[in-house]
Amino acid sequence: MNLAGHARWRESVISANFVAPQHRPKTIVVGAGVIGLGIAWRLAQAGCTVTVYDRGEAGRGASWAAAGMLAAAVETEPGEETLLSLTLESQRLWPDFARELEAASGIAIEYRSEGTLVVALNRDDAAQLRHSYDFQKGLGLDLEWLSAAEARQREPHLKPGIAAAVWSPRDHQVENRLLGRALAVAARRAGAELIEHCAVHEIIVTGGRATGVEGARGRDEADIVVLAAGAWSREVGGIPPASLPAVRPIKGQMLALQMDPAAPLLRHVVWLPRAYLAPRLDGRLIIGATVEERGFDARLTAGGLLALLDGAWRGLPAIEELPVAETWVGFRPGSRDDAPLIGPAGIDGLVIATGHHRNGILLTPVTAAVVGTYILGGKLPELARPFSPERFSRSARPREAVQ
Prior knowledge:
By secondary structure, this protein is α/β, with parallel strands linked by helices. 28% of the residues lie in helices and 24% in strands. The strands form 4 sheets. It has an 8-stranded mixed β-sheet. The protein has a 6-stranded mixed β-sheet with strand order 8-2-1-12-19-18, covered by helices on one side. A 3-stranded antiparallel β-sheet has the order 9-10-11, with no helix packed on it. A hairpin with a 2-residue loop joins strand 10 and strand 11. The longest helix is centred in the N-terminal third of the chain and has 25 residues. It starts with a helix and ends in a 26-residue tail after the last helix. The N terminus and C terminus are likely disordered.
């Protein structure tokens, strides 16, 4: 879908500010990553009683492990034209979302708008980059082809002799770890209760309707249950097999090197053929990420880290002098079609918000708005209907929420 098509979607644009209805359903959110916390914050702002449970610490999991890139344009691949409408809408929401969140939490989340570079190192890379560029430009995305000299003007430490690059001025970044912390604070300040280190073992389904959860603290009843547990969503019991979210963990190994904050090697997010690099204001340089079908295997491997370092070094040779600050593993929630699951689960009172794969940070504002709109208004916004979890069932038409 091109930008003109996206504009037509905007007749159903999601507002981030809800008008509270007369009925404010008591809601339990299972999962305190940025998706679950964003939903809880919006619902609590609207006057709902909200409780959030997490098996660990709020803002951890995939939210903590991510790189924080907001790359709606350069990450779009063939077959993702429908997803582009959702990512562009969320990208549009991000500046106001960031300002509001910082005001609500008192935490600067380092939303940065320098843009993104995609770099081709050799002739073969340039041919592949040109193919992606032509496809993305055909969708109406704001991209610019750069010569090697123009790219190195923007980032002088790039390897001499690179072939070409693409400049994406609208693809930005945020410090995802600060984002998780800010959302937890904002949700609490709005009135949500966060219960950390307390796993939900089961969603209680009575008479075909979700009525609460059972966990380490016992039974907790609610009008609505939102399952936003990321890659762990299928680990929660009580949901009939036909309604389990079609998600799986996709392992990603990552590392951070330490630059001098006063003289960083990079100032933009840079995509290379075999790695991406995201500079932080504190001097860390995030390098990611492997894509592995290994279940919940949390082990770092020599091969994984070598591939990342080699991929980064080929484009930015000066990293060889930098100390390693941190290494880690994260688990993206991947769906069958690599698109998110947002909306009703086929069981009254149960809402799903997972499967965001590599776009969880980018899609946080729009997911919170969509789920809030559905719970408070009873209808799934048109923009989100292609991503209803019910698309994997026999009946693909999203049901209305029971108020």
